[in-house]
Amino acid sequence: MKLDPIRIDHADVKKAIQSGHPYIQVDNKKFLLMEVEEMSDDGGYHVTDPDEEKQLVTALEEDNPILSEDQIKKMLGS
Q: What's this model's pTM, rounded to 2 decimal places?
């Protein structure tokens, strides 16, 4: 099943996303914002840059202590 990105057209939401902050909050949930160049048909993102992978792993480990090492690797496609 191909997953298409959600399109954002509301000016205030676009401004918030483009502000450079790494997270947004909707109600009481926080979401990590990450720009990607390509996305696979299943909605996954495959990290190919070693520096980017290191930054993602650091962010996931520091800000998401409920995720196991295996879950992090699965999310990164490692």
A: 0.48
